[in-house]
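Q: BFN domain-containing protein, please. Structure only.
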Amino acid sequence: METNFVELQFHGIHTMEPDGFTCAVFRWEDGNKVLPIWMDQDDALRIQAYHSGYRPRRPGVHELLADAFTRNGPWVSNLRIVSHFEGVFMASVITSEGEELDARPSDILMLSELLELPIAADEEILQQCAVFVNQDDMEAYFGIMIEAADDDEVFAGESASGDAQADADFEQLMQSLGVTEDDLFIDMDPDDDGGDKPEGKT
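A: Structure for BFN domain-containing protein:
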């Protein structure tokens, strides 16, 4: 069975209540769904700094890798989220020769910023793990503006994503991590373009 990879849009690092965990937020255009990927706070802060335009004076590990990957022409062809198990996502760097290198999501996010390459995810993972966010919440919590489409309206009583089983599966996953959908979108500053912070923290 052929795997279908879907390009995602990265919308920064956010801090999720109630425990202050950091996650990268990706948007999947199909059905206005969001894929949050939890990660170490240090990695998250580094990614957000790059996403905001910061560049260090001296190269770090990812800068050295990016330089090596491009020294003799483009060597990386794709950055992908390839699997998911019990709340943990696995990623891959795909070379121009078709080799697949195991990586963490935070690694491919850094390479995405440095190499200016998009990130794609296995559509099956998105069906299982992405959560629907309505247009008002997309704008209020993530600053994502989406044009309204009359044909895509969701009516009361229907599954928000159009797939009730996918919604139930995601809710179960989030509960296993100790996070509810209400927790996911709480106390976030819509005017903050960087990593959001819990109330009372700087």
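A: Brief note, in case it's useful. Strands lie at 5-16, 21-28, 33-38, 76-85, 88-95, 100-103, 119-122, 131-132.
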